[in-house]
Amino acid sequence: MLVSWLTRYGPEGPSSRYRAYQYIRPLSVVGVESVSEALAPWQGSRREQIAGAWRRCRAVDRFSSSSDVIVIQKEPIMPPAAWSVIRQGIRSAGTPVIWDIDDAVWIGRRGVETMSVEMAKAATLVVVGNNELAKWAYQAGARAVETIPTCYSTLPFSRPAAPRSDQIKIVWIGSPATASRLLDVEERLHEVLLNPQVRLTMIGAGPPKSLVSHPQIDVVGWSPVTEHTQLATADFGLAFLPRTTYADHKCGFKIVQYMAYGVVPIATDNAVHRRIVGDVGLLVGEGTSSESVRSFISDPPSASLREAVRDRWRAAYSVSVGAERWRAVLEGVAS
Asked: Taking burial as the number of CB atoms within 10 A of a residue's CB, which of 181, 232, 260, 304 is the most buried?
């Protein structure tokens, strides 16, 4: 079987890397061969966007005649008028199309919701990263929906972790764009830092302005090696989000990363986080007291709790589990 992965970004883009490219090698071991191409971007002038849409059309047309399955990752492929033209070619070739989404890409983007609904209806199958996205896909008219969480592997960084210090180390991973959302949960960050033994390491971006000079916060730039080093020596990991519709549809990937290292998650209480964290972390809601947060991080997590965190990751969010889910989905659609 040959699968064409048409992705939003190349392997350097996190969403494309973790939703598509990381599965190409393990799938090849079980007889699923892959080709891939990053689709034309939406950015630029109106003329450039139209040209990009038609390049997307040609990419789908080109791969539909040679592939057993096409996977379109993340973004709606093109405006409905263009999609209606190319869809006829796909139907003639009989090539099943999977649309894979890990974000509520339509929220707050004019015209994208129409494209998203069209994609959901046209796809043979919609694969989503969580149950909240699955609910939307069914409501949009998708014929079939499968949920495959965004998974993670600590490889190739498999060397033993460095010894942990006496301090309690908390980490947060993100970008300047996602760091801006921390303003909505700034009070929670203050609560975390009430314990003088805590150090918070922010990977990839700094804190809100009111915490920029806080003596317990360190900021480090992101790189694969830095991320591994910081996670391998951390005790707790933060995944605080504002309570917005867009945030409530996020896939909780930070939490999955933390759990792969045995880092205990402290996360906003929402439906997606509840499903990932279960009983191996702390879910923080509007009714969660400051004392509850301070008590939870008063000591480093026990070895048994760390192992329970990793066990939960192994069982549901490791790349081997994700690859097996994708194999079953691809073979089912192809047949």
From this structure: 260
